[in-house]
Amino acid sequence: MTRIVRRPIQIESWCAHVPQQFRDKGTLHRVADWLDVWREMGNWWEGEGERWMIRVMTVDGQIFDLESSDGQWWLYKVWD
Fold first, then answer.
1. How confident is the model at residue 30, as a pLDDT?
2. How far apart are CA 66 and CA 80, in angstroms?
3. What whole-number percentage of the chain has pLDDT above 70?
4. So what's the pLDDT on residue 1?
5. Rounded to an integer, what distance in angstroms lies between the CA atom of residue 14 and that of residue 40?
6. Domain count, the chain
7. Which domain holds residue 47?
8. From CA 55, how far away is CA 32, in angstroms rounded?
9. Which of 8, 16, 38, 77 has the fewest CB atoms lying closer than 10 Å?
10. What is the pTM for the complete model shown?
């Protein structure tokens, strides 16, 4: 089961253009593994552009989908 949350996050460190740590609502999440990376096209008819999606697993076993668009990072989805 998943929850779409789409809220801004702060990236703390990088490796090969993928976040290694990110902060969400004051909580620091350390990335243990990158599970998938893909591109999506937004609703072009509404002026939305391309966005990058990255599925990560943190060191404590949580899975998140992160989104990057227009230079901003978002916590897009939380996997339960």
1. 96
2. 15
3. 99
4. 86
5. 21
6. 1
7. 2-79
8. 11
9. 16
10. 0.88
61: alpha, beta or left, given left = phi > 0 and alpha = psi -120 to 50? left
Judge residue 75's burial from the number of C-beta atoms within 10 Å of its C-beta, 0-12 exposed, 13-18 middle, 19 or more buried.
Answer: buried
Do residues 27 and 19 make contact, with C-beta atoms less than 8 angstroms apart? no
Contacts by 20-24, CB closer than 8 A, 24 or more apart:
22/66, 22/73, 22/75, 24/75
Q: Is 6 helix (H, G, I), strand (E, B) or coil?
A: strand
DSSP string over 8-76:
E-EEEEEETTEEEEEEETTEEEEEEEEEEEEEEE--GGGT--EEEEEEEEETTS-EEEEEEETTEEEEE
How many angstroms separate the CA atoms of 40 and 61, rounded? 25
Q: What are phi and psi of 76, to 5 degrees?
A: -90, -45
Whole-number Å distance between alpha carbons of 50 and 69: 7
